[in-house]
TrEMBL record, chain A:
All copies of domain DUF3857, residue ranges: 138-217
Record key words, sorted: Signal
Domain Transglutaminase-like: 303-373
Pfam families attached to this UniProt entry: DUF3857 (PF12969), Transglut_core (PF01841)
The organism of origin for this protein: Mucilaginibacter gilvus
Name used for this protein in its record: DUF3857 domain-containing protein
Stretch forming the signal peptide: 1-20
High-level lineage: Bacteria, Pseudomonadati, Bacteroidota, Sphingobacteriia, Sphingobacteriales
From TrEMBL, chain B:
Leader sequence residues: 1-19
Name listed for the protein in its UniProt record: DUF3857 domain-containing protein
Domain spans labelled DUF3857: 56-213
Pfam families: DUF3857 (PF12969)
Species in which this protein is naturally found: Mucilaginibacter gilvus
SUPFAM superfamilies, alphabetized: Cysteine proteinases
Alphabetic keyword roster: Signal
């Protein structure tokens, strides 16, 4: 079982009078004051001594129902590197009818002053600044004064929000360790939330109690459930290379609204209980279903694009290319669209605008196409314990033609048909159609996407010591996309060639042909005539030659002794290289390295080299293949050792000598 | 009859074209196309000084975006703050034939705060609009007007502000009353200023740039201000916040800063003064006293930027920094100066252009505020002038790093401004000297130790790692020595020497299995696993700019390998010597009994060299890269 999967809470409410409590503000024990190092983690730059939060839905004094969070934290800053923890930024949303507010901010720093005595300086209210970041967000920022290594900072504040459904999640784990973190939650029975715990760590305390009539609202009364989530001795989260979003692995408690009862009317509103609810919701919504239904509106746009085409695949490709060209992505990620037609007319749109326009346009062209909601790699995994619409942050199209399905993202004009950007290759996606129940698809294992590159070199060693000949490289699948992106960074092909020639200092490019640059579904082919400065001259009896003259692997990307999280590459890869060298007539191959063939466990990959010499011609071939998208932490030592062998092998040289 | 009709029609077309400029992309001059992803068709920038606290900036710009790479040139970003307000913005997008497509205005712009991570508060904001059409090329025409409530600083005119952008026409006008005095300096422009009067009787200075080809990026080139067109304008009298002022040289500017911006900002509490007296008790040497105070300041403060009040050029009160323990560069320098004053050590507030990539000196003949972006402190000891970087909490006393070394700055003294030059760290000073003793056994196992001294600017190579906890340091070693695969550091030690010219000594004891590869009775290993220069810089055909080396350095490596018994070299040993005007490289290996001794020496000299030397420079680095890649091949005796 995957130890990183979230778990859902099932509570049995016990009636109790015992109340959880915040820790006392402004009280520091001699141990805390005197602490020089955190014994459990001596590498810690800072340690959270205590953290407490209390979230509740209640009646504020002005006759509104508000979701409020009292936040309180005390941190010991052990070194100057820990000072970043004294910079506090409270992110507040600007909602359509009200802005979220932060209030009752107070804090202090206790430090040892110049004379060796403990001093306490209060946070000055004049040093608390509010900035409107843009029309959606504002921030309240402050920093605790008089920081010194060894000081203790403590601060607390309250935020209030009218967005009652967005119950604050609680990050138990951070990049510094915590002695204690406790979250008290009071939820009136009018609201029901699904609660889940993510991360491999266990809660120290987790209780749920019953509070009688804790919520009243114009005569309506409700009992509350009072939940406590507490964890002691929480280790710091240490990020590793080649992992997806840390969010997938950090311990935290999440809340998702499932239903609520309007306290004014007594009407019960289901938010999300089952996928059928979400399906219905999305189908009816202005930002999703209504946009996909706009196929009739898009028909006039699509008609000339598919005119004369009879084959569905051909039609689909034409529509895809049309949307790619006609709506430029404005760098905003979304799952919905305000108006797909407006996006087409203004030539600018979000991910939702572009790909829902694509779904509608393909349907307008008679191709059955669904929208697929997904979460990008940086956004983290999807919670599959219960349906949560907000977990998704991206949408793509899935076209059904004959017995095949094709995944499409039109936000990048260089992506080929049936290709998704790496950021989308994450976890699972939910296929949403207007007429059938939604269902999951695996974004990684079902993906046909590969990165593959095949090069063949055919070179002749000249008497002046230069290697002259042809290099042909095929860039397939995602490799082709990446190569096209690199070429298109230049205004013209000539500028690309000039740059390449300038970079390959020892190689003179005599000519270069690129085929299929704009035929995105074909492999990109680059054919170069080159002259390489291999040797200064041929006045030696013996010469050595390393076949990996362009991209020799010399550094092992996997350097850790211990690995905690999976290595996520997103897609399999395959690199093939074949080199033929013709030596001058008076030379003969003296020695070739031994061929190597090795593989990763569970068919995870292979590395094969082969040398062959016949007279004054030798051939070398090499395959480096990774067949999996994700390697578990347990496979890390194998990957590391695999690379060790690759590096060792690529050092070997072919030797040839004068007859 | 027919003929006349055509003529009339054509005349009409000409008239129309005059009323509405033609943005048809096919009219673009062919010679502007190479390397261009966008072309500025026409740009008109003007400043009009209505009053010292009412200056109007007007910009009109028409730019054709040729492909995706030029999209940023077609996007519009307008910065403003509490002293600069936007009066209007409007614009239009045209298709490739010059036909209007989309009209836009201020309401279509997003409004954002422009605050970086280390800033707690600043009122800098920007409005942003991204142009889009259904393809390329397209043309964006826009204009906006700003009202500035100050006249101390006027933005420089830099018609070429990025690579891959060509200019058909760009012009700059400065408009003021006939008796309003300005100073100006033009750099790298083809034609001189034209001075005239407009219909309202105001004086108009006009500069323009025509038909400038797009530049491509050239590695190792000097700061763009040394080769790109630029006009700098400075009013002789001005207003800043509610402070009036005037200056026309560096001396006057330094005096103004000292008397107006720094006036009464140096008070610190009596308790702090008393503590400082206690702290420096018994120290008579003013330099040692200053060092004590400097280290006290470093321990007590850290960098955070808060731009309130008139902000910009005026530091926070020293008392405020004393209370909160934070501030930006101005505030921390002003505070340190106040602390030094309290113990009777004189110091000067210095403005400077801080930059890691270029040493940018102030133009000695032309004083403007805009040339500075940083503040440091000067201790004017006789024959021992010392500069202090007050914004870094770890940097040694008197050491400047490559951010402010070797450049002309302005010291603001009570007697007026004084141009001074900061110390240069030469190629010999920036030394990394390494000695390693390794043993390789029959199985390819490497064991041994490395001793390395990092000095001068190369001190910075290891400064950061010192702050890391042991567990992180251990994780960093494989990244510092990536060419030793399977590196296992048995133990290590760092010794830090925080002198004016600081150094760090690193000692490592290590082993690495499979360092050498055995194959067909041969043993291969990489000769230089410790210090690799990496890829040579990109060659540049038809280079336009000189070769610029910002920082010289010396690396001196010696590795002694004890080889397993019974092997000999397969090839004759490597021996390379390169001597060039900009540097020197030697690498060689010799066999001494069962030992192989590898020596590598590289010295690069800072300076500006003729562009003709650039290909030799690329070649120099390529030869080094080749030598660094050398594999030793041993065969059985």
């Amino acid at each position: 079982m995957n130890k990183f999967l979230p778990v859902v809470f099932c509570f049995i409410l016990l009636s109790s009078l015992a109340h959880s409590q915040d820790f006392t503000y402004g009280e520091n024990s001699p141990e805390e004051l005197g602490m020089k190092k955190y014994n459990i983690d001596t590498a810690a730059r800072a340690v959270v001594l205590n953290e407490y939060g209390k979230a509740r839905i209640s009646d504020d004094s002005e006759g509104n129902i508000r979701l409020s969070l009292d936040y309180h934290i005390k941190i010991k800053l052990l070194t100057t590197k820990g000072f970043d923890k004294a910079k506090v930024e409270i992110l507040l949303r600007i909602l359509s009818n009200s802005e979220e507010e932060a209030s009752d901010i107070k804090g202090y720093t206790t430090y040892v002053d110049d004379n060796g005595t403990h001093q306490t300086v209060e946070l000055d209210s004049k040093s608390i600044f509010t900035t409107k970041e843009n029309k959606y967000w504002k921030t309240v920022k402050f920093t605790l004064p008089n920081l010194r290594p060894g000081c203790i900072i403590e601060y607390k504040y309250t935020t209030k929000s009218a967005a009652l459904g967005s119950f604050p999640s609680w990050k138990l784990q951070d990049d510094i360790p915590k002695v204690n973190s406790k979250y008290d939650v009071h939820i009136p029975a009018f609201w029901n939330f699904n609660v889940s715990l993510r991360g491999p760590l266990k809660l120290t305390k987790n209780t749920a109690e019953f509070e009688k009539e804790c919520f009243t609202w114009y005569g309506a009364k409700a009992d509350c459930s009072f939940m406590v989530f507490q964890m002691d001795n929480i280790p710091a989260f240490v990020e590793e290379d080649y992992m997806t979003s840390p969010k997938n692995f950090m311990s935290a408690v999440y809340f998702e609204l499932s239903d609520y009862t309007n306290p004014n009317t007594g009407q019960k509103i289901k938010v999300s209980k089952a996928w059928t609810d979400i399906d219905l919701n999305l189908k009816r919504s202005d930002y999703f279903g209504s946009q996909i239904k706009k196929k009739d509106q898009l028909k006039p746009y699509i008609a000339p694009v598919i005119a004369g085409k009879t084959d569905d695949l051909e039609k689909a490709k034409a529509v895809y290319a049309y949307i790619q060209k006609n709506i430029k992505w404005n760098k905003i990620t979304s799952t919905g669209s305000e108006n797909v037609r407006k996006a087409l007319d203004s030539h600018s749109g979000t991910v939702g605008d572009i790909n829902l326009a694509l779904v509608a346009a393909l349907n307008a062209a008679g191709i059955r196409t669904e929208a697929v909601l997904l979460s990008t790699r940086s956004n983290g995994f999807i919670n599959k314990l219960y349906p949560v619409e907000d977990d998704f942050n991206y949408v793509v199209a899935r076209a059904n033609i004959g017995n095949e399905t094709y995944m499409l993202d039109a936000t990048d004009p260089l992506l080929g048909f049936d290709m998704l950007p790496l950021k989308c290759l994450n976890d699972q996606g939910r296929v949403m159609s207007l007429d059938k129940p939604s269902f999951w698809i695996d974004m990684l294992s079902l993906s046909k996407q590969r990165k593959s590159q095949t090069s063949s070199y055919n070179l002749t060693l000249q008497n002046n010591g230069k290697l002259k000949g042809t290099i042909v490289t095929y860039y397939n699948g995602y490799e082709g996309y990446e190569k096209r992106t690199a070429i298109k960074k230049f205004n013209t092909q000539d500028e690309y060639i000039e740059d390449l020639d300038e970079r390959l200092v020892k190689t003179k490019i005599l000519s270069l042909d690129i085929t299929n640059l704009d035929s995105l579904d074909q492999p990109l082919v680059e054919k170069m005539e080159v002259e390489i400065d291999a040797f200064d001259n041929l006045n030696h009896n013996k010469l050595a030659f390393n076949p990996f003259f362009f991209d020799r692997i010399t550094n092992n990307p996997f350097k850790l002794n211990e690995r905690n999280y999976p290595v996520d590459k997103g897609m399999p890869s395959d690199d093939r290289f074949m080199l033929t060298v013709h030596l001058p007539a008076d030379y003969v191959v003296d020695g070739t390295p031994q061929g190597v063939a090795m593989s990763l466990p569970n068919k995870g990959g292979k590395f094969i080299t082969n040398f062959e010499a016949v007279g004054n011609t030798f051939t070398f071939s090499n395959v480096l293949q990774f067949t999996k998208s994700v390697y578990e932490a347990e496979e890390y030592p194998y990957l590391k050792e695999f690379y060790n062998k690759v590096i060792a092998t690529e050092k070997a040289e072919i030797v040839f000598k004068k007859k | 009859m027919k003929l006349i009709c055509t003529t009339v029609f054509m005349l009409m077309l000409v008239t129309l074209a005059k009323a509405q400029p033609n943005y048809d992309v096919s009219l673009l001059p062919k010679e502007l196309m190479p390397y261009a992803s966008a072309v500025v068709r026409n740009e008109e920038i003007s400043y009009e000084v209505k009053d010292l606290d009412n200056v109007i900036y007007h910009l009109k710009r028409v730019v054709t975006v040729l492909n995706k790479n030029g999209d940023d040139e077609g996007s519009i970003e307008v910065s403003y703050d509490k002293n600069t307000s936007i009066k209007y913005i409007k614009g239009m997008i045209y298709n490739e034939f010059g036909k209007p497509l989309t009209k836009f205005g201020e309401k279509d712009f997003s409004d954002n705060a422009a605050i970086d991570n280390s800033t707690l508060f600043a009122d800098d904001r920007f409005k942003f609009y991204r142009s889009a059409t259904g393809g390329y090329p397209y043309t964006v025409e826009y204009e906006y007007e700003l009202r500035c409530k100050f006249s101390l600083t006027i933005r420089d005119w830099t018609p070429i502000s990025s690579t891959n952008m060509a200019i058909e026409k760009s012009s700059y006008q400065f408009i003021c009353k006939p008796d309003f005095l300005i100073r100006y300096k033009q750099l790298n422009l083809d034609s001189p200023v034209a001075i005239g009067n407009n219909t309202e009787g105001l004086k108009v200075y006009t500069w323009q740039a025509l038909n400038k080809k797009a530049l491509k990026s050239e590695p190792y080139s000097p700061s763009p201000r040394y080769f790109l067109p630029r006009v700098i304008v400075a009013p002789e009298t001005f207003m800043y916040g509610n402070i009036n002022g005037s200056f026309n040289n560096w001396e006057g500017m330094g005096k103004w800063i000292n008397e107006k911006l720094l006036f009464k900002r140096g008070d610190i509490p009596a308790a702090t003064i008393a503590y400082l007296a206690e702290l420096t008790k018994g120290i008579t040497d003013p330099k040692l006293k200053a060092k004590k105070i400097y280290e006290y300041m470093q321990e007590k403060t850290h960098y955070i930027s808060v731009q309130v009040g008139i902000g910009g050029y005026q530091p926070f009160m020293a008392s405020e920094v004393d209370r909160t323990g934070y501030g930006d560069c101005k505030a921390l320098v002003n505070y340190t100066k106040a602390l030094l004053d309290a113990v009777g050590v004189n110091s000067w507030y210095c403005i400077v252009n801080g930059n890691h990539d270029y040493k940018i000196s102030f133009a000695t003949d032309f004083a403007t505020m805009g040339q500075a972006n940083h503040v440091i402190l000067c201790l004017p000891f006789k024959n021992d002038t010392t500069f202090l970087e007050c914004t870094d909490q770890k940097i040694p006393f008197g050491y400047l790093s490559d951010f402010t070394d070797d450049r002309t700055l302005l010291a603001c003294t009570p007697q007026g401004g004084k141009l001074m030059h900061t110390p240069a760290y030469g190629a010999q000073v920036n030394l990394q000297a390494r000695k390693a003793g390794f043993t390789i056994d029959n199985n390819g196992l490497l064991t041994g130790s490395i001793n390395t001294v990092f000095k001068g600017i190369q001190y910075d190579n290891r400064e950061d790692i010192l702050d890391e906890p042991v567990s992180e340091q251990r994780k960093l070693f494989p990244k510092l020595y990536p060419a030793i695969n399977n590196l296992d550091v048995e133990n290590y030690n760092f010794k830090q020497d925080k002198q004016v010219l600081p150094s760090i000594t690193e000692d490592i004891k290590l082993n690495a299995r499979d360092f050498a590869t055995t194959d067909n009775g041969k043993l291969y290993f990489s000769l230089n696993p410790l210090n690799r220069t990496g890829r040579a810089p990109r060659d540049v055909r038809n280079r336009l700019t000189p070769l610029y080396i910002n920082q010289g350095y010396t690396d001196d490596d010696e590795i002694t390998y004890k080889l397993p018994a019974g092997y000999k070299l397969e090839f004759s040993p490597m021996d390379i010597t390169l001597e060039t005007p900009f540097g020197k490289f030697t690498a060689n290996m010799v066999i001494e009994g069962d030992k192989l001794v590898f020596k590598r020496y590289i010295q690069l000299k800072q300076g500006t060299y003729s562009k003709e030397l650039y290909s030799e420079f690329v070649n120099f680095y390529q030869k080094i890269a080749d030598a660094d890649n050398y594999n030793v091949s041993l065969v059985k005796n």
